[in-house]
TrEMBL record:
It comes from the Bacteria. This is Uncharacterized protein. InterPro entries: P-loop_NTPase, Type_1_exporter. GO terms for biological process: oligopeptide export from mitochondrion. GO terms for molecular function: ABC-type oligopeptide transporter activity. Transmembrane segments: none annotated.
């Protein structure tokens, strides 16, 4: 359901900054810029594909979902 909402909103959100806090990574898979936080600090950033390749923390979270 969350994925459908985000996809429907994408057209309205062009050229705007939107902050989405998600616990399910499948919800944000198509987001342009994803920030990975740990203990309140940004530890990685990128899109889904790049984070899966380069971020051990993101990869761990994604595959444990």
């Amino acid at each position: 359901m969350c994925v459908k909402i985000i996809k429907n909103l994408k057209g309205y959100l062009n050229n705007k900054i939107v902050v989405i806090i998600a616990h399910r990574l499948s919800t944000i898979r198509d987001i342009d810029n994803i920030y990975v936080l740990n203990d309140g600090k940004v530890i990685d950033k990128g899109n889904h594909k790049n984070l899966l390749r380069h971020s051990d923390q993101y990869k761990k979270l994604y595959y444990n979902e």
